[in-house]
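May I ask for a single protein's sequence together with how it folds?
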Amino acid sequence: MKRIEKITSTQFLIIIFIVKLFFFMMYTPKTGKSMESTVYMLGQLVSLPLLFLALLPFYYLNMALPGYNIIDCGGKINSVAGKITGVLYYCYMIFSVVNTVINFDFYLSTAVYPESKSWIFIAIIMLACFYCASLGIEPLARFSGFVIIAIIISGMMIFLPLVSEMNLSYIHMPVDINVKDFISAVYLGIISNSEFILLYIFADNVKKGLTKGIGKYIFIAVAFYELVAFFTVVIFGAYGKTILFPLYSLSGMARLSILDRTEAVHVIIWVFVAFVRISLFIIGGGKILSNIIKISFDKCVLITSVISLIIALPAAKSFRILHEVRIFMYTGVLFMVFAVIIPTIISIGVKLKGRCKN
């Protein structure tokens, strides 16, 4: 087994912010349901306190068993609980790798290189991510530091030139807010934070201060999301709902005197974000599998990468699969199961186990 690598809480929060950016950069105001964009933005703000409520199991486990990941916490109840927890979260890691890869391929082959062969993108990104994952989380954390700087710079390059193009008349709050739409917006604001699941997987890889840093992370993530939504609305108006990749279109509209094609910067950043995201999920999968079957981390990373590649190659050829996966993601089942329900059950089990010992 590989030694437990340690990174700072700031490094880890930067990594999961980049992980979150993958779907931020594919942001579409119309998320499977027609609703006012301003209502959707308001729902994101209202979801803030509920996000902290959803993280209560993490806070408890971090306090009761500091330095333990969710699989180890399950193992503290009994070995069977630990194994079952490991298998479930390993399946989630595989799903996340495949989901990211097929979305990565769909984005490049649709918005950037329409005439290209999808398997080429998949093979290249999986090979690169396998190599990165085999090195562990420390090198990925260092690389993510450079990526976040590039993201900040590219964001300024995209959004600042668009300030003069804003049309604030596109923003309006409907007179009668549909309660069902508002509740849906709040719910989407909660379940769109699936990166919280990674807190449970990598809790033992973070030195200290993770619980304190989560609050700041949530506010920054929501603020960034609101910024993307705001610019999409004030630049495109209602038309933004019909654009497949609004953020990519925004980058295409931005023009700087030093760089004429800012959408090229967007694509480069997108590739970096996908690289970090896929690599982290492979690391998580390798880590969990190594814990379950007790073989080397490197071999588990290879197994995880191969399984993901075998599933992703045929899945990427079917637009129906991609569509069904996206619909499934918007149900919030994965977030509720892996970020709320399982951690809550394990928290109760750990609490009861502690009482039995006492």
Observations:
- The chain has a mean pLDDT of 84.
- The two ends are 33 Å apart (CA to CA).
- The CA atoms of residues 72 and 220 lie 30 Å apart.
- The longest helix spans residues 79-112.
